[in-house]
Specification:
By secondary structure, the protein is of the alpha+beta class. Among the domains are: about 80 residues, no CATH class; about 35 residues; about 140 residues, Ribonuclease H-like superfamily/Ribonuclease H (Nucleotidyltransferase, domain 5). The chain is about 40% helix and about 15% strand. The protein has a six-stranded mixed β-sheet with strand order 11-10-7-8-9-12. A two-stranded antiparallel sheet has the order 1-2. The longest helix has 18 residues. It starts with 10 loop residues before the first helix and ends with a strand.
Length: about 525
């Protein structure tokens, strides 16, 4: 039993009643002191010494560079610290430094900490990891409305429990934790710009979004975007639901003003009202906060850390070396050092004849391996054989696909509907404008569902819609919001699937979807839509 604050007269009695040992702060829990000052160096000394003592015996006996890299990323970089106090431990361990001898560090630690696509090993900076972990509390604040920790925090600092936004300045009397999270929103900081750009509020019924303070309409709050209207408003606090009402199932805005507007304020008022009318209030859907840096809208520490790396200018993308995950990790680290020229070889060896013939030797070995397969009759693995199975009797199969030239280039969709005998019942190919690949895949599924629902002769027959986009299939079949930019299409598909009842959407590899893929590419090259229906 640990007391917090002043000593109580009943402390001795409580200890006997609950049969608890008495202790005083700070105490040790999971290897870290609780109740001590985390800004003090002594707070982390125990952990640093313990990790250093455990790393030292391994340096030469068991682990190569690949193993050391795995250990650093999975253990050392997982420890959430406020300071970069583990950088030296990680660096020394990776290069195999001992107590008596320091080995050559062939690459600077900043390069090693870069992500793999930018020429590093993807270890990450401890300070960036810490900021990312703190940012997750901001995300949880908006998602976990009824959690105990949020209720305690809101009660202590006078925050509304229904609030979706953490952004507020911590008072000087706040705890170290509150000040640490509040520091993420320091003006001009990288974390503030990432959070403000990444956390977006999706309006539902409007009962959790503060009308004037929260950022839900544009890139800033209404009181910042329309300061004159805010000054005229007689009600300067409340949620969206407090600034309107439902009239015959239609939402009507009502922003009361303390006086009539002047002639020179009319245009400003009209722009304000037009902006409000662009928002759809949905009575049965709750307000939610989404993370725009991931397609599914869910926050992750890794995505926030990647945003920090991008904002700091992590360098050009490394197209020389690809981490395929096929060879052992120690081999990949070796090739990485080799390609970068960080092997510590003398110039005569590095540019010698044997070293220059490395690529030729590898190519010859691959050619010999191919000849052994071709001329010695080695059969292919059965796992690479793909069977194109037709649907079951009285069922239909709709293969669909989407195609796009680039991130937001020309896009097309295509699909083919067949019965159990392989007879083609419907074909479609269409140009869908400027879309990315995943949007085209989703539109192809939506088109197939609409075509099936519009044909009365198909009603009552089971149908399987097949797509080679696993992400699109997962978003349709799961219960979440899916991709934040495809919410309308996803909800339309789900509602029609629920209405039809005998329709399901499944994933299959591209090799089983070649005809639909060809139709999608034809749609990409066209300017219109082609649909051909046969007899069921």
């Amino acid at each position: 039993m640990v007391k917090v604050g002043k000593k109580l007269a009943e402390e001795e009695d409580w200890g006997r009643v609950f049969k608890c040992k008495k202790a005083t702060l700070p105490i040790s829990y999971l290897g870290l002191p609780i109740g001590a000052r985390p800004h003090s160096k002594a707070f982390w000394n125990t952990l640093v010494l313990r990790m250093g003592s455990r790393l030292a015996p391994w340096k030469k006996k068991f682990l190569d560079k690949g193993g050391r890299l795995v250990l650093i990323k999975s253990v050392l970089s997982s420890i959430s610290t406020y300071y970069m106090s583990f950088f030296k431990v990680s660096r020394s361990f990776f290069w195999g430094d001992g107590v008596e001898k320091r080995k050559v560090h062939a690459v600077d630690w900043g390069t090693i900490c870069k992500r793999k696509s930018h020429g590093g090993l993807g270890i990450g900076r401890v300070l960036d990891i810490n900021r990312s972990l703190l940012a997750k509390w901001v995300w949880r604040f908006g998602k976990e409305e009824g959690s105990m920790w949020k209720r305690v925090l809101c009660a202590k600092y006078g925050i509304s429990q229904s609030s979706l936004s953490w952004k507020w300045k911590a008072p000087s009397s706040a705890s170290v934790f509150m000040k640490a999270v509040g520091s993420l929103f320091d003006e001009g900081s990288v974390s503030a710009s990432i959070l403000e750009g990444g956390l977006k509020i999706l309006v539902g019924c409007g009962d959790r979004i503060r009308f004037w303070e929260d950022v839900w309409l544009d890139d800033c709050s209404l009181k910042v975007a329309y300061p004159r209207i805010f000054a005229l408003a007689s009600k300067k606090s409340g949620t969206i639901r407090d600034f309107g009402s439902w009239q015959k199932d239609v939402w009507r805005w009502n922003v009361p003003l303390r006086r009539s507007i002047f002639d020179w304020e009319v245009n400003m008022w009209k722009v304000f009202c037009m902006a409000l009318d662009c928002v759809t209030i949905i009575r049965i859907i709750p307000d939610v906060v989404v993370w725009t840096h991931r397609p599914n809208g869910e926050f992750s520490v890794k995505s926030f850390q990647r945003c920090i790396e991008d904002s700091l200018g992590d360098g050009q993308v490394d197209v020389v070396f690809s981490w395929g995950g096929i060879t052992p990790h120690k081999v990949e680290v070796f090739i990485w050092q080799l390609i970068k020229g960080w092997m510590g070889l003398c110039p005569k060896v590095q540019y010698g004849r044997a070293w220059s013939s490395l690529i030729q030797a590898i190519g010859w070995s691959l050619w010999e391996a191919r000849n052994r397969v071709v001329f010695k009759g080695i059969s292919a693995d059965v796992n690479y054989v793909i069977d194109l199975l037709p649907p079951t009797l009285n069922a239909l199969k709709f293969n669909v696909d989407g195609s796009a030239k680039c991130a937001l280039g020309r896009a097309g969709i295509g699909g083919v509907l067949c019965d159990a005998r392989g007879k083609v019942l419907c074909l479609f190919s269409a140009f869908v404008g400027a879309r990315d690949a995943i949007a085209a895949e989703m539109l192809a599924i939506q088109k197939a569902v609409n075509l099936y629902a519009s044909k009365t002769t198909f009603v009552g027959r089971d149908i399987v819609i097949v797509s080679d986009s696993k992400s699109a299939v997962d978003w349709v079949n799961e219960s979440g919001i899916g991709h934040i930019n495809l919410v309308d299409s996803i909800y339309d598909i789900r509602s029609k699937l629920d209405y039809l009842g005998n329709t399901k959407v499944i994933y299959n590899s591209r090799a089983t979807n070649l005809l639909a893929d060809s139709l999608a590419k034809k749609g990409l090259a066209s300017t219109g839509e082609f649909i051909k229906r046969g007899e069921a």
